[in-house]
Amino acid sequence: MKPFRMVLILASMVIAAGLLHLAVYRTNITLTNVSNVLFVVGVVFFLPCVIALTSAFKVFHGIRYVMRVLISPSFRNEYPHYKEYKDERKDKISSAIFIEVLITSAILIVTAGILAFQVMA
Asked: Residue 26 has what DSSP assignment?
């Protein structure tokens, strides 16, 4: 993990949250609105990172294989079995950037939760 890159990612998320706040709430700055915007931006970045780190996107390889086998006879000849297709589709994802984005988005979500508890108190 690179600290400078994490700070850069966090800064870009905060800028995105600021732009979202301006788009949705205009200049009405309250703790509730800031909490809502931070939570939305945090979740939008958090969930794709979880998908990438757990390799959950590989589920779609099976769906794509079935659709292409049904549609294209030449594809069926090229890959008669799913295992051959899967072996050729080895997608290696560098997890370093996803871990950093996951951590920074978790920071935003926790910050949003703390602000929400402050509002409710």
From this structure: T
What pLDDT tens digit does each residue of the chain (121 aa) get?
899 999 999 999 999 999 999 999 999 999 999 999 999 999 999 999 999 888 888 788 888 888 988 998 888 888 888 888 888 877 666 788 999 999 999 999 999 999 999 999 8
| Domain identity same for 81 and 120 | no
Q: Which domain holds residue 17?
A: 1-55+93-121
* pTM of the complete model: 0.79
Specify whether 104 is located in the same domain as 60: no
The answer to whether the beta carbons of residues 79 and 85 sit under 8 Å apart is yes
> From the CA atom positions of the chain, what is the Rg in Å?
21
Amino acid, res. 48 = P
Domains contained in the chain, number: 2
Q: Judge residue 113's burial from the number of C-beta atoms within 10 Å of its C-beta, 0-12 exposed, 13-18 middle, 19 or more buried.
A: middle
User: Which two three-digit tokens encode residue 99?
Assistant: 């871990």
Alpha carbons 27 and 39: distance in angstroms, whole number: 18
Asked if 24 and 83 sit in the same domain, the reply is no
